[in-house]
Amino acid sequence: MPSDKPLAQRLLDGDRRALARAISLVEDDDPAGWELVREVYPHTGRAAVVGVTGAPGAGKSTLIGKVVANRRAAGRSVAVLSIDPSSPFTHGALLGDRIRLTDHFLDPGVFIRSMANRGALGGLSEASLQAALLMDAAGRDDVLLETVGVGQAEIDIIDHADTVVLVLMPGGGDSVQALKAGIMEIPDIIVVNKADHPMTQTMVREIRGVLSLAPQGDWKVPIVQTEATEGTGVEQLVEQLLTHRAHIEEQGTLAERRRNNLRNEVIALATTKLRRSLEARVCSDPAFEGLIDDVVARRLDPASAAHALLDDTRS
Amino acid sequence: MPSDKPLAQRLLDGDRRALARAISLVEDDDPAGWELVREVYPHTGRAAVVGVTGAPGAGKSTLIGKVVANRRAAGRSVAVLSIDPSSPFTHGALLGDRIRLTDHFLDPGVFIRSMANRGALGGLSEASLQAALLMDAAGRDDVLLETVGVGQAEIDIIDHADTVVLVLMPGGGDSVQALKAGIMEIPDIIVVNKADHPMTQTMVREIRGVLSLAPQGDWKVPIVQTEATEGTGVEQLVEQLLTHRAHIEEQGTLAERRRNNLRNEVIALATTKLRRSLEARVCSDPAFEGLIDDVVARRLDPASAAHALLDDTRS
Asked: What's the distance, Cα to Cα, between the start and end of chain B in Å?
């Protein structure tokens, strides 16, 4: 039975349906969604936000499912946001993984949501951040953000996390190479999943080597071996999550990290807004195709065309 | 002995030192560099531009070295641009690979350049595209763009290529998973390098499976097995490069692809320019930190802060 209370109030009361509705609004880029985030924002900042990244197939979803069970047993409420940036043609390939989280579908203490809407304007990362804030405002103790990363230098959504976990699997040498080459940022915790694989110890040694070359902060990145399907190693992972959180709280780096994250987020949101208005102009302006004709005919170079486009947009 | 001719003219004459100087100008974001690209742009569009991407350690540089030798033997002049987006702390880790191209250092028909300058403003991809245009204008028949990619949906520099080659290695399962999940775009040619590895055939079968699920265009993506260190399979790769080029020329898709690439490039350049001016404002404006203080204190949400920032920037 729908309540007469406004959506924001129901969300703050922890109503699951209100949370689901609110996330749909931001996913659809409905102005009411942005307004809602604005309204509930003062109530955010309480959740422990953990980002989980890694190659497709590394077992992130299964692992998250086990972590969720562990946190629930400890009496905490949990929200999981799975972000799926896969291309339209395989749509659903990654979302199939989400089924692994269905164990928790009947538990009101667990809220699970997938986002795959790339949209014409590429607002997935924007919408994900807003959704994470909504989960936080709805009073979830733990917010887990799952996203696919195979070596990207920046994964926007991970920027929102207090703790970043990278999940690797034996045989997934590309991610270790990317870590080694500095293409991928060093996370806070590294998990080697599918640790029953014969190549596990080789991989662990290789990762240790990479970490020994990385600049030493005051946090020593732990390597946790798990077999997510069996639940093996999940307790050790949770322990490391708690240790990392205690560490950043003690050191005051949590506040610092959040300030940096929020700063980047504001700039990213502003840049997206600028790009959107640029793209909207381009789509509606027949003169732009004429500009491209000139570039294609090699009469006008791309940088000059970009200048012309901006001058035109501003006027 | 430096000539008295202007830089643009020497570049168009194919002078190696003029090309090197010109690239340094765009890398340093010197206005003279942009001016130069503007000037020589009418002479671009003749080179066959091939993008080579893949995880670090897949053997891209060695393979490119062999392709260069093959093209030189066929009487073509070649330029190689290696783009290294690795993080500051491993700086040089990838550039070490470049040493594998030194066989060609004494051949004036081969021009090799690395770019790793991330810069404060993140202009690497912009500068790379300008550098590729300069190589083209300098009359190089083949321009090879080497970049590290481990599953990024968009790798800007690759957008500039007429033909995209993805180099995989057995054991690098993460890239195949990324391809499968649609996180990584299907390239024009797939190379499985280090094909002496026992896992090669398994990987080839897996890739065939992925390709069979991808939407069928009029080009059937070939899988070439190479052992770059031995030169095995390099001829087959070159043959596929030529076949692909003939194919896109015949089908008229080369013109279409270049139009799309140039279109994206103009929008990307314009967006970068907007972001830069935004960041410059942010750095010089003490009010911005006050805005972030409000966001951190949860008095103002990130989206509203972004709005405020833009309004402030415009006024």
From this structure: 52
B298–A41 C-beta distance less than 8 A: yes
CB B104 within 8 A of CB B65: yes
Question: What ipTM did this prediction achieve?
Answer: 0.84
**pLDDT tens digits along B168-181:** 988 777 888 888 87
Burial annotation A156-191 (CB, 10 A radius, 16+ → b, else e): bbbbbbbbbbbbbbbbbbbbbbbbbbbbbbbbbbbb
Tens digits of residue pLDDT in B218-242:
899 999 999 999 999 999 999 999 9
Architecture of domain A45-251: 3-Layer(aba) Sandwich (3.40)
Q: Which residue of B has its CA nearest to A87?
A: B182
Domain ranges of chain B: 45-251, 266-314
Question: In chain A, which among 80-99 make CB contacts under 8 A with chain B?
Answer: 85-91, 93-94
Q: Which residues of A touch B303 (CB under 8 A)?
A: 34, 37-38, 130, 269
Helix (H) or strand (E) run with residue A113 in it: strand A110-115
Which chain B residues have a beta carbon less than 8 Å from that of A265?
302
Backbone angles phi, psi at A143, to 5 degrees: -115, 120
